[in-house]
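Notebook entry, structure prediction.
Reason for the run: the old model in the group folder had no record of what sequence produced it. Starting over properly, with the input documented here first.
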Amino acid sequence: MRRKIIAGNWKMNGDADLVRRIAEHAADAISGAELVVCPPYTLLPTAASHLPTGVGLGAQDVSEYPAGAYTGEVSAAMLLEAGCRYVIVGHSERRTLYGEDNARVAAKYAAARGAGLTPILCVGETLAERDAQRTESVVGEQIDAVLEAVGATAFSDAVIAYEPVWAIGTGRTAAPEQAQQVHAFIRARVAERDPEGAAVLPILYGGSVKPENAAELFAQEDIDGGLIGGASLDSEGFLAIHRAAVGG
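New structure, fully documented this time:
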């Protein structure tokens, strides 16, 4: 049975007060779906000390290198030491704003997994790519890069998040049927190399998920939760999305 996950990506937002508010609300979270919080690096120690047991802590990025003269970078081992269990890899903003290509994303994924972190691999297409009917080719290439770098079982003990770039921070959301179609494609692509792993792989949707649309999205067969952006900064809204994932 696939586990359900609701992960909050705070991006470059938040402070210690927000950590405390989220922690207070998370203590009352309904069981049945794992809750994960991914704050900026500077808030990881505060989050690690305040989040209740059972709430996962994740980082928003990781270096592909284990150590060295890489000013401003943070290694997977450092994230583990800070209390992280998860790390987001290949978010669309890292790909578009900072030029991370599939090869570099795959290297970061390998570094995270090799150190014992659970990577949350983000994949997705731009509006131009969707309009050109290239969604599956783009997403397939992003997945294949990781499979080639790590091997057939690359997605065991991992998470994939499908985030259509055109629906992130725009208020636009893929229709549940559109999202499901891509999620099913992702599962099938992984199953070509690892059928057993694909069957239990959590695939999250990340594209302007809100309390108002969460239940309909999560009702789809291959959508196992969400990677939540702006809505994760509101403790009540974030927990409402979590309740939608468990049918509450």
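Summary: The chain has a mean pLDDT of 94.
The old model has been moved to the deprecated folder.
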